[in-house]
Amino acid sequence: MPPPAHGSRREPTERGSDVTTLTLDRVSKVYGQRGSNPVLAVDGIGMAIDDGEIVGLLGSSGCGKTSTLRMVAGFEDVTSGEIRLGSRVINRLAPAKRNVAMAFEGYALYPPLRVRDNIGFALLRDRHPRTEVEAKVNEIASLLEIGDILDRYPPTISAGQQQRTSLARALIRKADSFLLDEPMSQLEPQLRAILRARIKDWLISRRMTTVFVTHDQTEAIALADRIAVMEKGVLEQFATPAELKERPATLFVASFIGEPPMNIFKARAHLDGLGSIVALDERGDAAFEVASPAGIAQLAEGQSLWLGVRPHRIRLGDGPGAVRGIVASNHWLGDQSHLGIEVGRNLVIAVAHGVVDAPIGSEIAAILPPESLHLFDGETERALFHGVGAAVAA
Amino acid sequence: MTRETPLGRLVRGVLLTIVGLFFLFPIVWVFLMSFQTNATILRIPPSLFFSPTLDNYVALISGKLQTQAGTLEIAFMNNLMNSVILSVSSVALSLVLGIPAAYAFARFRFRLGENIAFTLLSFRFAPPLLVLLPLLLYFRTIGLDNTYIGLIWVYQLITLPLILWIVRGYFEDISEDIEHAYRVDGNGWFKTFIRIAVPLARPGIAAATLLAFIFAWNNFVFALILASADKQPVTVGALAFVTASGIQYGQIAAALVLSVIPTLLLALYAQRYLVEGLSLGAVKG
Amino acid sequence: MSYLVLESLTKRFGRETVLEDASLAVEQGETVVVFGPSGCGKTVLLRLIAGIHEPDAGAIRIDDRTVTHLAPEDRNVGMAFQNFALYPHMSAFDNIASPLRARGLTAAEVTRRVEEVATLLKIEHVLGHLPRALSNGQKQRTSLARSLAPGPAVLLLDDPLRNVDAKLRYEMRLELPRVLKAFNATVLYVTQDYKEAMALGHRVAVLMGGRFVQVDQPARLYTRPVSRDVARLFGDPTINLYEAHAESGAIELFDTQFAVPAPSGPCVVGIRPEHVEVGMEQRPGAIPVELDAVTPLNVRAVLLLKTRDGQEILATCWEDEAARFPRGHRAVWATLRPDDLMLFDAASGARLAPRTH
User: Fold this and answer.
1) Domains with residue ranges and CATH for chain C
2) What ranges do the domains of chain B cover?
């Protein structure tokens, strides 16, 4: 298939076609190279994004995710490495020539144009017929619940509405890739779930290759097929949400993903008998002990570890190997309960269905199933075991 | 966009140098002139190389100048003292009046507030000459003609609006919640003003003070009309160098250099406050 | 006599009435969460109690003392602001010491109290820093410490966790009740996050349209909301709402009849997403729907369903169950139970069913 001409309108190609895989090959970005204080914002990122895939760049502020997005868009120079669309290197290509649609963090709406004209801007510029543009604008506007403000001007609408307008303007277009910078940070809480679902449906139905940036791991997990977790410019792990939850490659990923976050305790390996993991409190004393997952024979006696277990994998109730503690908090949130259980001096968070009858201060037993334990190396913080099997090298 | 080619950088550097030279040239020339005799200055073609002399400075400081026509009395040091007295006093008075007023305008919404503030600013729009002759007559009547007090009072037209408008902006930029927090802690409004608002507006106060001082120092017309010889600042005093026997360029240059020093020093000192972090991180974002 | 009493507070800004006839009673040592949609006047309410604004009508009493028109410095309240409002030119220590010094404590006593509070909030190691050198989490704790240190009669917390990252927010949700209990503080806590409201409050006071529409224990607000608008505020995803017509004890929804005791007439039916069961197999009473998207939500997953006539239903299931649904559109079956349905009056929004409180 011949490569398409610059700037022409394109239809999405078949899945797996080499032409539209977006590849980042050891991409780095240094700010202020010639100044007194160069900052390494992005350090050797590599990933391959398939056609039609939705990828989230997730991390706390300053981790390099926005810099990466802007390099893909063409608003920042690539200090080293290559960005390729298919087999074509696009490092030096100006943004307008990259056929990307972008929704900016600051919305960047055109103040003198009405909301509907903002949204339809690119289509009108590309000479689509007016009736077609109007139909498409109405469609995307009702999807994002801004149908009633189409004739208003940007300065008169709320931040959340401005953000949705900016998003609509990007999503209405046909482009090789869609780059969204914090697209839903201002969204009203009541609209979040429904709009995330609708946007995901829209992107998947139209096979739109999308890269979005967010600091909210809930949002990343909701939308993305795969998530690139970044910290201090380094790519920690690039995997599906399920992988990140069940097989986090590093302690950072494990502690960043999930709400409530994964329970993480410093621990020690104990090889007596069948072997166990002893969880330590902040003073280094033993807090509680759990049966070790199979395959622990490879650990050394007393080896320093980090022990992780996700809150909803903890089974409340007694049984062999259960730990005992005192209920410190019991919050029923309508569709789930969050319990804080003090075991030794450690606080273990557990999530359960429905209402849990456990008053504060009462005793409670809980089982941390071996197949739900995660072990990380005490020094390198890299994953050693996930449940029954050894961790796959990242 | 951060795409800058080496050629682009070179061109930018050359253009900046040219512009810099263009603006700096007169100042450098005047500085050089102050070390030359009148004869050297007026020589054609003008030369960059000469043997420097301190005669001009000596003449200014000692108050006596030898010319062909005889010895001339120069009141430069006296003028310098007047400039200092007038500028410092005017600015000081403006600060005492202007800072609380700026706070009031920034924090309290009172009827006609904007109108009053704008009226005060409008004083800067009017050409001074419009009011000066009537003012001279009034001053003569009430005896303020040729007095420091009279001049300082009139100088408020220059300095007060500046202080008011600049400092008001800085007060407005301070999040009100910081002051609210101090009140809730148990402090009254005056203590909040002194301990929270004023310290946090320091960069603005420094900037406004500097600007007001420069404008007061440079003022010519008010002093020309309302002051006689013994109260004249350096701006008016410079006229004395236009003598019957010719214009004493060397002394003018030297007088210029000496006149600029106080404002230069003040600017260097206040610059630190101007650059001081304006987003001090105590309020999120 | 309740410790903090708000009596018919009314506040207007220009032509906008932010609070109208708002009344509330808080007991000593109780934490009441003031909860409501953004812009509903929650922050204004706190500021009236702190003395930053004065009400146009109504009264405020703290420990039997009428404080309605007293200056802020005379009220003995503590306030933590949403944007921290730390003094930028003072160290964390001096920030926390500020209310203590204003009350005339000796230097030794000030130092003791500041260190005590700082240790409780785990910021004792950054006391010497200026606010700009602190992380957001540390700034938030410093702000909290400053409000707690003098042991005020009433503690006003204005969405203190809003500008703090998600992980820290969750931690504070657990820590805050313990800290507040240690001080036996009487607390009014403002938030827009219903989970925070349900977790932190002994009672939650829902502020809408300038007045308190329901003040109740968290669980009751979820299961027995007084109106459709209150029902929408609790739950993520929001409760599904549909217009329907009740006819002699039954309503018709999605071409299916449900027996719900309710007076006849137009109504709005509400069903919470966790009460919609989704399966691949048809079951008696199940509705055929199309599953359009699966979006994980922490330990659950949200399923976007579309009925034959184009209406959207949001359902949730546990994350493990969601794994069986593939990417893309899929025909599935949704089951609703009549007991789970809530009915609201179409005009007033008041709850009609379930009838019991």
Assistant:
1) 4-224 (3.40.50.300), 233-353 (2.40.50.140)
2) 6-73, 76-275
pLDDT tens-digit readout, B56-69: 888 787 776 666 66
Interface contacts A/C by beta carbons within 8 Å:
115
Cβ atoms of A56 and A115 closer than 8 Å: no
Residue-wise pLDDT for B202-238, tens only, equals 888 988 898 899 899 988 888 888 888 788 888 888 7
Q: Could you tell me the fold of the domain covering A254-390?
A: OB fold (Dihydrolipoamide Acetyltransferase, E2P) (2.40.50)
Q: What is the pTM of this model?
A: 0.83
Q: Under an 8 A CB cutoff, do C51 and B186 touch? A: no
3-state SS class at B61: helix
Q: Where are the domains of chain A?
A: 18-248, 254-390
* Residues on chain C touching A194 (C-beta within 8 angstroms): 237-238, 304, 312, 314
- Facing residue for B282 by CB, picked from C76, C88, C98: C88
Question: What does each C-alpha distance from C114 to A289, B115, B282, C29, C166 come to in angstroms?
Answer: 38, 47, 19, 22, 27
The superfamily CATH assigns to domain A18-248 is: P-loop containing nucleotide triphosphate hydrolases (3.40.50.300)
The CATH number of B76-275 is: 1.10.3720.10
Q: Is A333 on the interface with C (CB under 8 A)?
A: yes
ipTM > 0.90 for the complex: no
- Exposed, middle or buried: residue B156 (CB in 10 Å: 0-12, 13-18, 19+)? buried
C-beta atoms of C86 and B277 within 8 A: no
- Calculate the alpha carbon distances from A328 to A245, A331, B60, C283 in Å: 26, 10, 84, 41
Q: How far apart are the first and last CA of chain B?
A: 25
Instruction: Check if the beta carbon of residue A258 is closer than 8 Å to that of residue A270.
Output: no
